[in-house]
Specification:
Distance between the termini: 64 Å
Oligomer: single chain
CATH topology of the largest domain: Alkaline Phosphatase, subunit A
CATH architecture of the largest domain: 3-Layer(aba) Sandwich
Helix content: 25-40%
Order of helices and strands: HEHEEHHEEEHEHHEHEEEEHHEEEEH
Length: 454
């Protein structure tokens, strides 16, 4: 038997490893900011134009019962990256706490198996600087909350700490500086010299995503791109081209509808670019929102009850779709409950990466849904302790198991058969036949309280 030269062996091994790497799917995880369940045409909005999202819903998985892990921004984002309930990491509400260094993120997991990783858009899990005033919390000497994405497994970064105007993101409508900067992976502030920062904010973000994809492809590496758009979070501003798409609407509606359509166009641009590069089929793209629509804007949660900052359905049930043309070859519509905590275990499951065994996970892989449309969720979903300065929104929690949902605020509990009563019109808490369910849920909630208060 001929013995191969050791150098030849190494070359063959590297070729095999590289081939395996290229067989791994690229992953793009997209999230909108404050987009309501009903703010997409595919979910029935009669005016807003979302052709790219509509196409994804028609071609891939349409999640009709998908939840953000919190009714506000930062906690949901923590769950998105880690697969864990946000309260396990101390991110109880927006602008409080950080993504702690001991957490293992999806970017770290994929970076560890050879993926190029990038974070683009909003961050909201800590500050981008501790040397100057920036956004909500960035300030000289604020080292406690200094926590840029690059500390969590990203090779490339183009991100803001928090919100920006959805058009001309660096300036207020009066022409003054907005006070929030984009920062890169070297913790440098991005300026106009480095590239365009004007016009539609979703395009500004996508202008950085596409070169990142091209670089990864040229290096024969799979990639993870986390793309967190700012739209349609306040300040809601649309450019002239998108305002003109909604004649006859109020000025406020024109801006809201326009910035969503502008974001949708960038998703369509992304998909077209992947197709042109010949990598669309083996690229996973997911989309969801971080919570329900803001109060006093023209977003809608459809017929679901309440909005952002509420644990009723309208605050946490959000639009969500997924495409992966190589594996999902026809539309799948599911009304099983899913949550942002599911992304981490799902992507690791797809890549055959074991979940770290030294911590608890609240998400569940929905990879089996792709091969078995009769998939039934086994994990329950808990939304615990939503603290807000507004006294009317304190101490909320909810828990969903099987067909029922328990909702509580300040120790007053309501029970809904959420499968048959998704709009939460019929409180069953006074129904004596449901006492067993209430007692079971109460025991679960008390155990969760005890764990989180440790």
């Amino acid at each position: 038997m001929k013995i191969l030269n050791p150098l030849v062996r190494i070359v063959i091994l590297l070729f095999i490893l590289n081939s395996n790497a290229q067989e791994r799917p690229n992953v793009i995880l997209i999230m909108a900011d404050d987009m309501g369940w009903g703010d997409a045409a595919y979910n029935g909005h009669p005016v807003i134009q979302t052709p790219a999202l509509d196409a994804m819903a028609a071609e891939g998985i349409r999640f009709d019962r998908f939840y953000s892990a919190s009714p506000v921004c930062s906690p949901t984002r923590m769950s998105f990256l880690t697969g864990r309930n946000p309260h396990r990491s101390g991110v109880f509400t927006a602008n409080h706490g950080i993504l702690r260094p001991e957490e293992i993120t999806i970017s770290e997991a994929l970076q560890g198996v050879g993926y190029e990783t990038g974070h683009f858009g909003k961050w909201h899990l800590g500050t981008m600087t501790d040397t100057e005033n920036d956004a909500n919390r960035g300030a000289p000497g604020n080292t406690k909350e200094y926590n840029p994405p690059v500390l969590h497994g990203y090779d490339k970064v183009f991100a803001t700490e928090s919100k920006v105007p959805t058009f001309n993101p660096m300036i207020n409508t009066d022409g003054t500086s907005y006070g929030t900067a984009f920062w890169d992976e070297n913790n440098n502030k991005v300026t106009e010299v480095d590239g365009n920062l004007s016009g539609d904010a979703s395009k500004v973000v996508m202008d950085r995503v596409i070169p990142f994809i091209d670089d990864a492809k040229s290096n024969d590496k799979p990639f993870l791109a986390v793309v967190w758009f700012h739209a349609p979070h306040l300040p809601v501003v649309a450019g002239p081209d998108h305002l003109a798409m909604y004649p006859g609407q109020s000025n406020k509606k024109k801006h809201y509808y326009g910035c969503i359509t502008a974001m949708d166009e960038q998703i369509g641009r992304l998909r077209a670019h992947l197709q042109a590069q010949g990598i669309a089929d083996n690229t996973i793209i997911t989309f969801c929102s971080d919570n329900g629509p803001e109060v006093n804007v023209d977003g809608t949660a459809g017929n679901y009850r309440d909005r952002k900052r509420s644990l009723y359905e309208g605050g946490v049930r959000v639009p969500s779709v997924m495409v992966w043309p190589e594996k999902i070859t026809q539309q799948i519509i599911t009304d099983e409950p899913f949550v942002t905590s599911d992304y981490f275990p799902t992507i690791l499951d797809i890549l055959d990466i074991d979940l770290p065994s030294d911590r608890s996970y609240d998400g569940e892989s929905f990879y089996p849904l792709i091969t078995n449309t009769n998939f039934t969720r086994s994990n329950s979903i808990g939304f615990a302790f939503h603290y807000q300065p507004n006294a009317n929104q304190r101490n909320q929690l909810s828990y969903q198991s099987s067909d029922y949902k328990l909702y509580g605020q300040d120790e007053t509990f309501e029970l809904y058969h959420i499968k048959n009563d998704p709009y939460e019109n019929n409180n069953l808490a006074g129904d004596s036949s449901k006492e067993g369910i209430l007692n079971e849920y109460d025991s679960i909630i008390q155990n969760v309280v005890a764990i989180c208060e440790r």
